[in-house]
Amino acid sequence: MNTRVIFLAVVILSFLNGLALAQGSIASPTEKIVDVRYSACPVSGNPVKPDIGEVYEGKLYHFCSMACLEAFQENPKVVIARIKEAQEFALILKNYAGELPIYCKVTGKPAVKRIFLIIGDVITFYCCADCRESEVKSSLPRVPGIGGEDELRHDRH
Questions:
Q1: Tens of pLDDT along the chain (157 residues)?
Q2: Which SS3 state, helix, strand or coil, does residue 63 take?
Q3: Helix and strand tally (H, E) in the chain?
Q4: What is the pTM of this model?
Q5: Are 91 and 60 in contact (CB under 8 A)?
Q6: Structural element, H or E, at residue 136
Q7: Is 11 helix (H, G, I), strand (E, B) or coil?
Q8: What does the domain layout of the chain look like in residue ranges?
Q9: Are 55 and 28 in contact (CB under 8 A)?
Q10: How many CB atoms lie within 10 A of CB 123?
Q11: Can you list the pairs that 50-57 forms with residues at least 24 positions away whose Cβ atoms lie under 8 Å?
């Protein structure tokens, strides 16, 4: 009987430990995230920037600045209520392995919910902006350059 109780306690503690993620880590145990797309920032009214956003309750919301993102973090439900003319698109979460936390594919560290890259219908989360930027550079098409070295091609025709 004591063995079962101890086993159950270990299972419960392991589960709770998995939920106690690092601050800002992804906490949505799903392989899909809904990208909520709209043109005007719900905080300031300025045009949103696609790379400034955060996941809240399985949905990705975008903002025009870090200040507006911080306002969202303080009171997300009020900010969400201000969103107008939004469309929702399902994104496939690339670096979700069926368990939490989600890890950065570059460093293996826990990913942060506000640092991401969307390519097509796939979203990948990273631990820091440097990892995201390295992925941006590696995803650009390459063309042969002078001296046999490849050069990044910034125009995607």
A1: 554 434 333 333 333 333 333 334 444 445 678 999 999 999 999 999 988 999 999 899 999 999 999 999 999 999 999 999 999 999 988 877 666 678 998 999 999 888 999 988 889 999 999 999 988 887 765 554 443 334 433 343 3
A2: strand
A3: 4, 8
A4: 0.67
A5: yes
A6: helix 129-139
A7: helix
A8: 22-139
A9: yes
A10: 20
A11: 50/118, 51/116, 51/117, 52/114, 53/114, 53/116, 54/113, 54/114, 55/26, 55/28, 55/113, 55/114, 56/80, 57/28
Helical ranges in 36-120 per DSSP H: 66-74, 76-81
CA 44 to chain centroid, in Å, comes to 22
Find the helix or strand (DSSP H, E) in which 36 lies: strand 32-37
Tokens standing for residue 89: 């698109």
Are residues 116 and 124 in contact, defined by beta-carbon separation less than 8 angstroms?
yes
